[in-house]
Design brief:
The chain is of the alpha+beta class. The protein has helices at about 30-35, 45-50, 85-90, 130-135, 160-175, 265-270, 285-295, 325-330; strands spanning about 5-10, 15-20, 55, 60, 75, 80, 100-105, 105-110, 145, 155-160, 180-185, 195, 200-205, 210-215, 225-235, 250-255, 300-310, 315-320.
């Protein structure tokens, strides 16, 4: 039994459970197959029942790295969940549909709003993927292909088949996708500054909050990060209400990332002295407060365009998510980039 106040796993019965392997799961490692099917069961427990031989593949013992095949029968012993996991099952995420940019039988692309996490964890009980699964109870497979910060809006890919997930994740890992964001940076961004190639180091603060910083190129903890920047428009934001100050300069940037490091765009722009408007982690407190007074109540970072090869057909896909109204409202009519993905 796991935990002091555990209850029986609500998925299978208290007896032995048999999980059949379908075509989509063929080739997957046994441990990953079980982790996907035994939601809420701690990883340590899954690996323990594999090591102990309680998990059987076609009546035989198997190691965690065994590749399962279509038609295999996976025997799983009675599983018990912690009270926290049971409560999560009894109080699932509320179902929610999100605006769709594209969908077929392999993949869907949605337009994620700002302020919504992509998945539960780190103090967040649920996110986009949990809500999407609740809204589509008949879907056999829904998994995030990549991630966006909670404060960032825009294009988010979800795989509807495991084969699509692996092929798309391979593209992201091999940098074969094209990811362009729109960011409103404070100040006048120099047109000549087109490439930022600065390593980043992820760390935890004393309170456990995750942060990222630029480090020296020879820092052993640094991960190379490359960001391409193009000035889309130069803006003069209106002065603050009731203040005679001059308009504040800002730059609407098209930012393409060649690597996918945590908080990469936010940290790279801030390190150049031009933080993103509304960024409460790496931005400027006074500037953010002033921007709030003219209507900006979130970080101005939006996953605008995404290119990738379709996981089944190989066709090059190009998707665009328009700026959400709350960001569009801050820009003059001519300040929105007109580039359209086709």
């Amino acid at each position: 039994m796991i935990g002091a106040a555990a209850r029986t796993f609500a998925g299978p019965t208290q007896n032995v459970c048999i999980l059949p392997v379908d075509e989509e799961s063929a080739g997957q490692r046994l441990d990953n197959f079980l982790l996907r099917h035994l939601k809420g069961v701690p990883k340590t427990h899954v690996y323990r029942i594999i090591r102990s031989g309680e998990v059987r593949v076609n009546k035989g013992r198997a190691a965690a790295d065994t590749r399962v095949a279509a038609g295999d029968q996976i025997r799983v012993p009675p599983i018990r969940l912690s009270e926290a996991a049971v409560l999560k099952k009894e109080s699932p995420a509320p179902a929610r549909d999100f605006p769709l940019l594209f969908e077929d039988e392999y993949v869907l692309a949605l337009d994620k709003p700002a302020g919504v996490a992509v998945h539960g964890g780190s103090g967040v009980s649920f996110g986009v993927i949990e809500q999407l699964r609740q809204a589509r109870p008949g879907a056999k497979f829904l998994e995030l292909v990549h991630r966006l910060d909670r404060e960032t809006s825009g294009i988010l890919l979800v795989a509807k088949r495991r084969s699509a997930l692996t092929r798309l994740q391979d593209q992201f890992r091999e940098r074969e996708t094209g990811k362009t964001y729109l960011a409103l940076a404070l100040g006048a961004w120099p047109a000549s500054r087109k490439v930022i190639d600065l390593p980043l180091h992820k760390y935890l603060q004393a309170d456990g909050e995750r942060r990222v910083k630029v480090v020296a190129k020879d820092d052993p903890d640094g991960m190379r990060a490359i960001t391409l920047v193009k000035v889309a428009r130069r803006l003069s934001l209106p002065p603050m209400p009731g203040e005679p100050a001059a308009p504040q300069e800002a730059s609407l940037l098209e930012v393409t990332i060649k690597t996918g490091r945590t908080h990469q765009i936010r940290v790279h722009l801030a390190a150049q002295g031009h933080p993103i408007a509304g960024d409460d982690k790496y931005g400027e407190f006074d500037a953010n407060k002033a921007m709030h007074r003219i209507g900006l109540r979130r970080m101005f970072l939006h996953a605008w365009q995404l290119q990738f090869d379709h996981p089944a057909t190989g066709e090059r896909m190009a998707l665009t998510a328009p700026l959400p109204p709350e960001l569009q409202a801050l820009l003059p009519p001519a300040a929105t980039p007109t580039t359209t993905a086709t």
